[in-house]
Structure formats: C-alpha cells, structure tokens
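Q: Given only this backbone (279 positions), what sequence would you predict?
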C-alpha cells in the first residue's frame, strides 16, 4: 500500500507540474484504481400526510490512498412519472481515501403535486420513483463520470387508525353530565409520523353534544399507539336523546365527524362506534 501511495503521489506531482512525461502518465494509470459507485438504498428520512423526504443513497468505493472530491452533479427525481424537487449530497463533496463514502440525494415529495386528491394518494401502499443523472469525480487522471440511475418504490404514509374506547360518565346532574372519552391513535407506518391534532363534532345517540380536540400529539413512533382521554360536558337540554342514553347507561352510538392534521394536510375522519358508557 505504501508503494502504491508513493507511485500515485509521484504521478500526481508529475501531472500537476505539466511534465508531459509518458512514464509518469503510465505510472499514474497503473497506480490509480477506478472507484466504483453502487446503489445502496431508498429510505424516508421524514414523512407526514402532506409530504415526505425520500433519500436515495449511493455508495462510492475509493480504493486509493488519496481522497477524492465531486466535480459535478446532475440529478433528477421522479415520482409516479412526475418530477419533484431534488437536492444534492450535503456531506458528499469529499470522498474518503481507502474506504466507502455514502452519497445521499434527498428529494422532497409533496403529495399534492403528485395526485389531484391527496387522500386518494394516501390509500396507496407504495409509490413508484425513478432517479437519474450523473456525478463527476475529480481524480489524478481527470474527471471520471458515473451514472445515477435507479427505479423502485417507497412506502406511502398511511392515515393513523383512530378509535374510541368505552366512555366513562364521571358526573351526572339534572342539567347534564361530564363524560370522559378515551381515544386510541395508532400509527400504521414503519416510520414515525407527526400528528398535529385530531378534532371535530361529536354526536351521542344522534344528538350533537359538542366538539372534541386533542391538541398536538407530537410524533407517533413507528407502529406505536398513543392513548388519551378527552372530557366533555354534555348539556341535557340541548341533547335529549343523549341525555336518555347517559342517564340509563348501557350502549349508545358515538360518531365523530372531524379531521386529523399531519404536516400541512388535513384528512377527514368519520368514526362511528357503538360504545358502552360506564358510570
């Protein structure tokens, strides 16, 4: 390895001085080993129900004792045959000697740019992508060009599952009652998903009883669930059918007509469940 390094350094020195020496040029060609570029993976580095960042990762193997650098980048990214905004490697300008370096090409995918109805796009399991372009790598022998070409799919974010558990009646008076509505939110994705909030109008036994709102739920872990309890004061005078159901206990139909917000996207929620009201 030391011999190769010495030969390569001598060759680089000769070329930089413009000696034109055929022997040094031949030495450079013999000492320098051409790097290789291979596709490694495609991954979602962040995602919501409005957009996602898709990272296309290539690996460049430099078997030479000298570090290299990128001279040029030409890159385009397509989702479902539509071009989206693509970036260049933030840390990929310098390529380590005697090793492998990751080149990460991020692309921001706004689902509204891909499909006319975002909620329809979110029902897909996966979306097709195509990456194409090239990079130029500076070497002692000049700039070497490597093609960037790969096609595949990435996981489309799924809308979280939202369900009520059995409500609990904590206080009943002549005028009304306070009811605690347990809510379970499950992330059905293999990646974390932000949920800015869930809210909407609530009906019990067909009567409008008020509005529920969770506030910001933060980031749901991959495959994780978040449980919360939402209290609501129900006025019997404005919800007679609900009043009868709550006074007697037992089962009643609960319906939430609302929305779930993730990123910049609001998706409709229509939840209807027959629930047992506990006292």
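A: Predicted residues:
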């Amino acid at each position: 390895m030391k011999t190769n390094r010495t030969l390569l350094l001598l060759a680089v020195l000769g070329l930089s001085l413009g000696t034109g020496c055929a022997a040094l040029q031949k030495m450079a060609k013999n000492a320098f080993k051409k790097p290789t570029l291979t596709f490694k993976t495609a991954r979602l580095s962040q995602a919501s129900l409005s957009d996602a960042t898709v990272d296309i990762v290539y690996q460049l193997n430099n078997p030479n004792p000298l570090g290299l650098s990128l001279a040029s980048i030409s890159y385009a990214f397509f989702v479902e045959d539509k071009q989206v905004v693509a970036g260049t490697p933030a840390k990929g300008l310098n390529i380590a000697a005697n090793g492998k370096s990751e080149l990460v090409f991020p692309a921001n995918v706004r689902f509204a740019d891909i499909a006319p109805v975002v909620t329809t796009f979110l029902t897909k399991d996966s979306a097709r992508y195509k990456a194409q372009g090239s990079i130029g790598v500076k070497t002692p022998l000049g700039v070497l060009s490597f093609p960037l070409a790969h096609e595949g799919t990435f996981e489309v974010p799924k809308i979280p599952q939202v369900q009520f558990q059995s409500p609990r009646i904590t206080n009943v008076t002549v005028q009304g009652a306070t009811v605690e509505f347990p809510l379970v939110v499950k992330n059905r994705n293999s990646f974390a998903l932000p949920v800015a909030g869930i809210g909407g109008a609530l009906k019990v036994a067909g009567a409008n009883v008020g509005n529920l709102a969770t506030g910001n739920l933060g980031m749901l872990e991959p495959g994780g669930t978040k449980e919360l309890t939402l209290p609501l004061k129900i006025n019997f005078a404005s919800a007679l059918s609900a009043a009868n159901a709550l006074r007697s206990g037992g089962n009643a139909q609960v319906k939430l007509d609302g929305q779930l917000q993730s990123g910049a996207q609001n998706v409709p929620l229509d939840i209807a469940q027959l629930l047992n009201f506990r006292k």
